[in-house]
Each structure stands twice: as C-alpha cells, then as structure tokens.
C-alpha cells in the first residue's frame, strides 16, 4: 500500500465514475507540456521521476493510461495512483506494474515514499464535489507537494471525455486554463460551460471573465459558420483566430487543431 498507511487520508471519497480513455485529452496535453521537465529530470535513488493520478476512481484505467502515455516520453517514469477508498486501492493492484505503476491509499496529503515530490499531480473530477471556497486550500496543499518544476493539473470532464477543461498550476499557483473538446460533436463552444473546473463553473455569469470568454467564443464560432464547409476543424481554427487578439492564448496552431485552447489563468480568474 505504500508510505504512511496509518495516517488518515485528507479528503472525501469521490463518486468514482471512470471509463477507459476518459482522460485521453488531458493525458495528451500533459505529455506534451511536461515533456521538457520529464526529460531533464534527474534519476532518483528509487527510480525515475514520479507522477501522481490522484482520485483515479472505482477502476484504475486513468492511472494505467497516464503511465503508458508518460512512459512514451520518459521510459523510467513512475506513476502512483492514489485513492482514498481502500477497496478501490485493493482492486487496482491487479493492474500494478511495480515499481513503474503502483497504487496506494491517500488523499490531498499525497503520500509518497521518502517524502518524494512528484513532477506531476493530476486530480481529475476530484474537486467537482467540493464547495467552491474549498478549492484554493486544496490547490495550495497539492502545489506544496510538487517538485520545483512540477505541475498540478486539476479539472473536470464529461463521462466519455468529449468535453474537458483543466487548470495547470505550478508550485507558485495557477498558470493556465485549457478548454478541450471533441470538435465533431460540438454545437457551440459554450457547451464546455458544464465542464469548467470547480473554481470557474459557478462564475459563468455576466461580469465574470470566464463568461466573457465563452461569449466571445460563441460569437466567433457563429461568425465562422461558413468555414464549416471545409470541416469543423477549420471552423474551430477560424474561431480561435478571431478571439486571439483579445485573449492571452499561450498554445500553438498544432494544439488548436486538436480542439484545444489554452490561455493565461489571470485572464479568466474569478473577480
């Protein structure tokens, strides 16, 4: 089970809903964004750099898939799936591949052997059940566990992963917001409103920056309707080009083609 098994985990049990490939969009973004840090991370006495899938749910698919996608970037990466529910940890052992992929009980304290600091903590659909005023403390606690160049990815998605959003945070706090969608099933960008991270989902009201972002995306999407003749991807790319002068985008054309949009957190932070 790992370190600190006698310590009561910090947090509450999640619903545990999970499906294979539900977090593929997050995995893909993480592998791309974290690749430079993964490659330059030095080998540790116990192995390679550590990534944590926090609150993986009733089945361990997301941790297994995260390991496979990060392993393609760095062969000696280790992924630790952490769950607060003992039965889920026990059930996940059938998928363990020690020391590369392991599972243990824990919560926001992120228990790792020897006090290791992970290069990544991914907490998907974990804070969704908490109150909005609990988010900042959870972020702070998780960020304090990161390695100096580590990344916390916290967000939410629908049941099959077609609509996703996440906040990326460093040890200093939030950096970016990413929206990611399956373009072929997208009616309008504001469809993503229901899958905003907990810090933003109740802020989609007039006067809040995230509301203005979704409004601008919807308007640009409507204006880009003629591009639909060339495919939904071209319509999305035209939408992104339209809003780019007014919003601090930090990703590239290649990421936009995947149905992604990443911008600086300061532009959408709650007022």
UniProtKB/TrEMBL annotation:
Entry keyword annotation includes Chaperone: no
Region (Disordered): 1-21
Signal sequence region: none
Keywords assigned by UniProt, alphabetized: Methyltransferase, Transferase
Listed InterPro entries: SAM-dependent_MTases_sf
GO biological process: methylation
Gene3D superfamilies xref list: Vaccinia Virus protein VP39 (3.40.50.150)
MF terms in GO: methyltransferase activity
The keyword Transferase is annotated on this UniProt entry: yes
Organism superkingdom: Bacteria
Name of protein: Class I SAM-dependent methyltransferase
Organism: Streptacidiphilus fuscans
């Amino acid at each position: 089970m790992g370190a600190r098994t006698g310590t009561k985990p910090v947090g509450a049990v999640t619903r545990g809903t999970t499906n294979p490939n539900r977090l593929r969009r997050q995995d893909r973004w993480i592998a791309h964004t974290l690749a430079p840090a993964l490659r330059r991370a030095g080998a540790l006495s116990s192995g390679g750099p550590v990534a944590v899938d926090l609150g993986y749910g009733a089945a361990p698919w997301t941790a297994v898939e995260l390991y496979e996608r990060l392993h393609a970037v760095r062969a000696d990466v280790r992924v630790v799936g952490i769950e607060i529910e003992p039965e889920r940890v026990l059930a996940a052992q059938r998928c363990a591949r020690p020391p590369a992929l392991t599972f243990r009980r824990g919560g926001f304290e992120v228990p790792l052997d020897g006090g290791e600091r992970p290069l990544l903590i991914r907490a998907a659909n974990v804070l969704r059940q908490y109150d909005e005023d609990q988010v900042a403390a959870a972020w702070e606690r998780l960020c304090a566990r990161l390695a100096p160049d580590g990344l916390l990815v916290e967000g939410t998605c629908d049941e099959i992963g077609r609509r996703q959003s996440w906040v990326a945070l460093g040890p200093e706090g939030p950096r970016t917001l990413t929206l990611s969608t399956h373009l072929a099933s997208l009616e309008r960008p504001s469809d993503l409103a229901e899958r905003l991270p907990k810090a933003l989902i109740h802020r989609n009201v007039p006067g809040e920056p995230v509301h203005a972002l979704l409004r601008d995306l919807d308007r640009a999407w409507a204006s880009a309707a003629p591009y639909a003749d060339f495919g939904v991807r071209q319509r999305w790319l035209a939408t992104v080009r339209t809003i780019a002068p007014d919003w601090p985008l930090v990703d590239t054309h290649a990421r936009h083609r995947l149905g992604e949009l990443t911008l600086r957190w300061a532009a959408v932070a709650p007022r």
